[in-house]
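Figure-free illustration: sequence to structure, shown twice.
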Amino acid sequence: MARWFIVAGILLILLGAILHFVPSALGWFGKLPGDVDIRSESGRVFVPITSMVVVSVLLTLLFNLFNR
């Protein structure tokens, strides 16, 4: 269990460093085809369907890699 916390912490630190020093590196995230963005005068609805599928596939591959 402790190993997972260490790995998650390292990944969060790396992601934070990337977002801090190179903010345009993940500029494409949330703007993929299939991400629903509805804007109107009364508000905005954003549903990142495709982006969450990409995150799900990446996390599945990562977890399967560490479980072996």
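We now fold a second protein in the same way, so the two outputs can be compared directly.
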Amino acid sequence: MTSPRPLEKEAYDMSGARLALTLCVTKAREGSEADLDALEYMFQQLRFESTMKRDPTAQQFQEELEKFQQAIDRREDPVSCAFVVLMAHGEEGLLKGEDEQMVKLENLFELLNNRNCRALRAKPKVYIVQACRGEQKDPGQTVGGDEIMTITQDSPQTIPTYTDTLHIYSTVEGYIAYRHDQEGSCFIQTLVDVFTKKKGPILQLLTEVTRRMAEAELVQEGKARKVNPEIQSTLRKQLYLQ
């Protein structure tokens, strides 16, 4: 028995073009190629038009996102959603380009918001960030034994600038993100496995990614470590990729 098709008002229309841009610094980031291979497979499976750029400088991170935004706005066919994958060394709020210079994530995020990218206005924009957000390391913890206010309008004519965006970070604020020298990062590999094999709204899939990563045992320098992604969402509807 198949599940009922989500109502239009409850789910994003995914009948148009699906676009993806991946910017990845591979320099001094062993295992990055495994992540790129996994992402390429995922985007093929999910019917995305995918572009990948290796070893961007800090300025090129900005320039490539600007080109991506401009190309989206120039398209004559409808666009359903956009994915942007950013992989590099980093700190909280910053990514390090191949030239060791820093670029602000905030500047990259704003390029596709509802003000700056008309073709993606009210469309889902998903950012996947595989990068450290600090130096802290989580050894893990032993587990022992809203009221929502709504405001309705008959026919809203405007939309907030920052809706319809999903930020998926490989780790929580202040903490390290882990990457295996040959197998790639736990985060990207887990995300690709879930997104290509499971069906359901994207936030449900991300809960599965978080569960798997929380259960994973990572060892760094002989010590057990824990890591989990952080999801920040302003999506207004369900987003189905399958």
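Summary for the second example: The CA atoms of residues 5 and 11 lie 9 Å apart.
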